[in-house]
Design brief:
The protein is an alpha+beta fold. It has 5 helices and 4 strands.
Length: 171
Amino acid sequence: MYFKKIGGREFMKWIGYYMIAIVMIALDQWTKWLVVRQMDLGEKISIWEPHIALLSHRNRGAAWGMLEGQMWLFAIVTTIVIVGIIYYFHKEAQGEPLFSVSLMFLLGGAIGNFIDRLFRGEVVDFMSVRIPVIQYDFPIFNVADAALTIGVILLIVFVLLDEKKNKEKVS
């Protein structure tokens, strides 16, 4: 059996990393549940006027409402992404903590929004942010979206650091 091939210490590392994804999923679903339960659709609660607010919104598409109503496509793509993340975590990220953490943020974010699409037919978004320097209303997002963004940023940092490390080895 696969799990017998790994040692207890290695398994505990995996559990630790997977806990990042689990916490992201739980936090995402809990905050969405609160928004659906406590706020009317379109209701806005200012936190720091006019920069940060909770705004109950639903998204039937991908990022920024693209590909609205294409649930079959999201199901296929998200399943492939989830399998890919898990594969890379187990085959490529071992011994690379930053890579592992980035993958778990990506996994948590992907699963968080996938749960919404499967059970609600739409994604619950609620964070509204206005960037004051350029007076830009950032697209409304949720915890899963934030986890995906953090995961991508950490992945970029990992790639840059890994590239620098590999260049130093060659020199």
